[in-house]
Q: What sequence folds into this?
């Protein structure tokens, strides 16, 4: 019962339409990943701010270029951080969505991290 409620609570993203000409992983991205990431936006930002605190990093004192570099580095080099971000999203999949995810695991993980990184960049820089 909770699964249907969770799916219904996901936002609709007009720019992320699903069409017949899309590949399966593009459909998965637009129908599943983007809505979950948008739904969890505030949590993801709070988590990144917590990550900054754990790193004992004074992010606000950095120039814009250094902020961007720090964010890029966290999303490309910190394996534990990357795994936790992916887990925050994967934890919202239904069993059917998880089955789809397993079919293109590498591509989906890359898309998850890139989408979340772009959200963090747009929220915490400029």
A:
């Amino acid at each position: 019962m909770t699964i249907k409620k969770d799916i219904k609570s996901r936002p609709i993203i007009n720019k992320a339409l699903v069409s017949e000409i899309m590949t399966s992983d593009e459909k998965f991205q637009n129908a599943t990943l983007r809505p979950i990431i948008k739904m969890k936006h505030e949590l993801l930002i709070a988590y990144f701010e917590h990550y900054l605190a754990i790193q004992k990093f004074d992010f606000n004192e950095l120039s814009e270029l250094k902020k961007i570099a720090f964010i890029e580095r966290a999303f490309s080099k910190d394996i534990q951080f990357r795994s936790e971000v992916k887990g925050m999203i994967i934890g919202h999949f239904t069993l059917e969505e998880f089955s789809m995810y397993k079919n293109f695991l590498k591509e989906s993980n890359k898309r998850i991290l890139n989408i979340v990184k772009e959200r963090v960049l747009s929220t915490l820089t400029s």
